[in-house]
Design goal:
3-stranded parallel sheet; 12 helices; 9% strand; Lysozyme; mainly alpha; two-stranded antiparallel ribbon
């Protein structure tokens, strides 16, 4: 299904949308530096070769999906990519897909939230340092603003409800079973244009889907898309309004502002809301990341699919 208005392809910021700037941050390291949120450093905590092995890892080493519905935090041990045999677990596929997506969803949202906290501090401060000026210039370029504006950035630099993120990933990737998702972590139906980053060609249409090194990078590009594209200005306005009213921001509500994400329009919005409601995905909106951080490597043999 062709996606429309994902990003203005003639925009000079499209390369930023695909590759993203590495200054999206997580928690400071020992030297006070802010490491890139999608940088997987050090050896993986585990190497698994199948969906069933990943399911077993989560059962023995991590919180269950049901326990996370009541939790406030999740250890951000991210999975680098999808196992290519999720279809082999029909009874557990949905829960496993949601569980492997959650750490990246939380990590990316936490990085956005860290930038927002800094913006709020700048908004209330009458003075700024050279470092602040560089931060605002970098953030403005990343979010598609011609000139730095703290009020406008605050409209854009904010969390995307995890319930909405998970629903779109599920819908766009067929719950992790699509070829695009397996071969290139193309989880959100984002189109590529020209030579702007890695991509995967569709077999039956003249379309190329943006490909990403990891699930985290795909998630980060998706969040930036919703937070910067003109097509989703309504989503950002509604989110800001709920902030001013001190009300919760839900995926159910913001889904209504995604009519232009898909040419399916209202049907697409209804599908997203049905997924969110049926699987209780807005239960995860309050999650934030906690230590220890790390990552899990999905290992594939040549015979099993792309490596």
């Amino acid at each position: 299904m062709q996606r429309i208005h994902q990003k203005r392809r003639n925009s000079p910021n499209f390369l930023v949308f695909i590759a993203l700037l590495t200054s999206c941050s997580a928690a400071p390291d020992a030297d006070g530096e802010m490491p890139p949120v999608c940088s997987f450093e050090g050896p993986p905590r585990a190497r698994v070769q199948s969906a069933s092995a990943l399911l077993e890892y989560f059962k023995t080493s991590a919180n269950s999906l049901d326990s996370l519905r009541q939790a406030r935090a999740i250890t951000t041990v991210q999975v680098d990519r999808l196992p290519n045999d999720l279809s082999s677990l029909p009874a557990q596929r949905v829960d496993l897909f949601l569980r492997l997506m959650l750490p990246s969803a939380v990590a990316v949202n936490d990085a956005v939230a860290a930038d927002r906290v800094r913006l709020l501090a700048l908004e209330s401060s009458p003075t700024s340092t050279e470092q602040d000026t560089l931060f605002l210039a970098d953030l403005s370029e990343r979010y598609g603003l011609a000139t730095p504006s703290v009020p406008e950035l605050l409209q854009r630099v904010d969390r995307i409800p995890i319930g909405l993120l998970l629903a779109q990933a599920a819908d766009e990737s067929g719950w992790g079973r699509s070829r695009f998702a397996i071969e290139g972590n193309a989880l959100f139906g984002q189109h590529a244009s020209g030579n702007a980053g890695p991509s995967i060609a569709a077999k039956a249409a003249p379309v190329r889907m943006a490909a990403f090194e990891t699930i985290c990078e795909a998630t980060r590009a998706y969040v930036l898309n919703l937070n910067s594209s003109r097509a989703y200005a309504g989503l950002r306005s509604l989110r800001a309004q709920r902030r001013r009213e001190n009300k919760a921001v839900s995926g159910q509500e913001l889904a209504g502002e995604l009519l232009r994400y898909s040419e399916r329009g209202e049907d697409y919005v209804r599908d997203l809301r049905s997924i969110i409601r049926h699987h209780g995905l807005d239960d995860f909106n309050r999650l934030s990341g906690t230590e220890p951080r790390g990552w899990i490597q999905i290992v594939r043999s040549p015979a099993e699919g792309p490596s």
